[in-house]
Design goal:
Length: 490
């Protein structure tokens, strides 16, 4: 690697408070849970009309007693749970008791959850106050957050551009400071992509780290995970500790090694060996993305000089494996719904289910065999490197009117998920992957760097991301609409 410039990136602009600061303030009495809740609703009123991130909002009077109870418990000297008093909104794919779970589909526009999803119950047990739901594309399909029920979620750094998806509502809510923690789900990049587009952090944990009781009998490799999103790495770590851990209903969760959170996020990283794939497996990457990431890798070089450029040909063909397993999953999850309500689904979703219906057992078995072969190749690669560095996204955020890019660097995209391949090619292998803010284009749009570790090494991935974050401080750069509001208030 060439010697990078010596200067460290600095951002002196004010930043939204971190989740760890908010819960500490509530726990110490520096501020009340009631005032935090009231401020949250004020921020939602200010920013949500501009980005359309929160699609369902519980009236404040219904959740105010929960904040009052937190303040009363502190005044009585009781030990508060780790997220006590922190307002959160949940992605509209997961169940929150008493709130709609529309999944962005008119088919379920009137569905109200009778109980919490497992990770939501864990967040409540940790003291979080659930105030609503965040927007998602229909059934979480695709990395552009829009649907016929709630419309399009917009990028906080440029509302004419997309926020990514499918956790676009979560990312935009974080980027504007409406919430300090959010959940995301990720099959092919659904929390990593929007994190990169909105200058926040998104962790796809090791498969099984956050249990997800299976909804069906699985006959193919599971890929979808739940994970934390936040403005900072330390906030992601805080949330991961609240939602991780085995559950008897998800056998896969019992096979994952403990998280190992007795260690701090601070770690000496200068001796780590990193592999940097600027065009992983030959994927096309838009020049604007490559330019920003070249600078980000130079920044990483300053704290971790053992970086080697790699082509990551080990994952050549991984997109075909992902696409086959994803289509099988969509068919198994939604095949019957397609038969009865397919006319109410968006065209790209219908097409994906149709692909799944056309798959044979041989197709799925072939994809599984390719996956196993690639896992062996990845194990060899991780004998050389501690972590891998990749682009999160292949293109910059694009106009909200466009469903997905038709071409990248002149290469035609064959479907609505191919432009997400830089994330998708990792999903079949159960590895922890994080998107961390990595800089901005000349017109002020964010770009993310993806850090990938061995299965089970979630904490190590967080530690390297934290070292990079602390060196660069890109997370501190607020969207123009937030900075302008701060000036107006001031």
């Amino acid at each position: 690697m060439a010697t990078p410039p010596a200067s460290r990136t600095e951002h002196n602009t004010p930043c939204a408070p971190r989740a760890i600061d908010l819960v500490n303030d509530v726990a110490t009495g520096a501020r009340s849970a009631v005032s935090l809740l009231e401020d949250t609703y004020e921020n939602i009123a200010l920013y949500n009309p501009r980005v359309n991130a929160i699609c369902t909002l519980t009236p404040i009077e219904e959740v105010l007693p929960l904040a009052v109870a937190v303040d009363r418990a502190r005044q009585q000297g009781l030990q508060l749970p780790p997220l006590a008093g922190l307002p959160m909104a949940i992605k509209d794919l997961a169940h929150v008791q008493g709130l709609p779970t529309t999944m962005g589909s008119p088919i379920f526009s009137n569905q109200v959850a009778e109980e919490d999803s497992l990770f939501v119950a864990r967040l409540r047990a940790a003291g979080a106050i659930i105030i609503g739901k965040t927007n998602t594309p229909e059934f979480g399909a695709g990395s552009n957050t829009f649907n016929s029920l709630f419309g399009s979620t917009k990028n906080p750094y440029d509302p004419t551009k997309i926020a990514g998806g499918s956790s676009g509502g979560a990312a935009a809510a974080l980027g504007t400071g409406m919430v300090a923690l959010a959940d995301g789900s990720d099959m092919g990049g659904s929390l990593r992509n929007p994190a990169a587009y909105c200058n926040v952090v998104g962790l796809r944990p090791t498969l099984g780290r956050v249990p997800s009781p299976p909804l069906f009998e699985e006959v193919f490799s599971r890929m979808a995970v739940e994970g934390p999103m936040a403005r900072t790495v330390e906030d992601c770590a805080l949330m991961l500790q609240a939602i991780a851990g085995p559950d008897d209903r998800d056998p896969l969760s019992s096979s994952v090694a403990p998280l190992g959170t007795n260690r701090s996020l601070g770690r000496k990283v200068q001796d780590l060996r990193l592999g940097w794939a600027s065009h992983p497996a030959g994927l096309p990457i838009e020049r604007a993305v490559s330019s920003v990431l070249a600078g980000a890798v130079q920044q990483m070089w300053q704290i971790c000089p053992n970086i080697e450029e790699i082509s990551l040909t080990e994952l050549a063909g991984a997109m075909a494996v992902f696409s086959t397993l994803r289509s099988a999953a969509f068919q198994q999850l939604m095949g019957e719904l397609y038969e009865s309500h397919g006319h109410m689904m968006k065209a790209t979703l219908r097409g994906n289910i149709q692909l799944g219906l056309a798959l044979s057992t041989r197709d799925i078995e072939g994809a599984e065999e390719q996956r196993r072969q690639m896992l062996v190749a990845l194990e060899t690669l991780f004998a050389r490197f501690d972590y891998l560095l990749l682009p999160v996204t292949q293109v910059m955020p694009f106009a909200t009117e466009i469903e997905y890019p038709q071409k990248i660097n002149g290469q035609t995209m064959s479907n609505y998920i191919e432009w997400m391949s830089s994330c998708c090619i990792l999903s079949p292998f159960g590895m922890p992957c994080i998107s961390v803010p990595a800089g901005f284009s000349p017109d002020g749009l964010p770009v993310g760097l993806q850090i990938v570790g061995r299965p089970g090494d979630d904490w190590g991935v967080l530690q390297l991301a934290y070292a990079f974050q602390e060196h660069t401080q890109y997370w501190r750069r607020l969207p123009p609409m937030v900075k302008d509001a701060a000036v107006d208030v001031g």
